[in-house]
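Regression test case RT-17, inverse folding.

Input:
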């Protein structure tokens, strides 16, 4: 990501480091420990789109606590 972002200045490039989504885990019969809800997962994706960062890896748990993106 960082190399691609350093070579491309006309686009903002970011990556979201995803973890298991609780709703999907439930559908597959998996324990939901360690997962995050789809709503909280979406916050990181919205931050990647709406934020001004470039060349960053966004960790979903960091954005899950934020209220400003949803």
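Golden output:
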């Amino acid at each position: 990501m960082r190399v691609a972002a350093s070579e491309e200045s006309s686009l903002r490039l970011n990556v979201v480091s995803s973890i298991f989504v609780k709703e999907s885990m439930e559908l597959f019969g998996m324990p939901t420990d360690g997962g995050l809800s789809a709503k909280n997962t979406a916050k990181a994706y919205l931050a990647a789109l709406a934020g001004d960062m470039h060349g960053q890896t966004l960790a979903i748990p960091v954005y899950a606590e934020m209220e400003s993106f949803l």
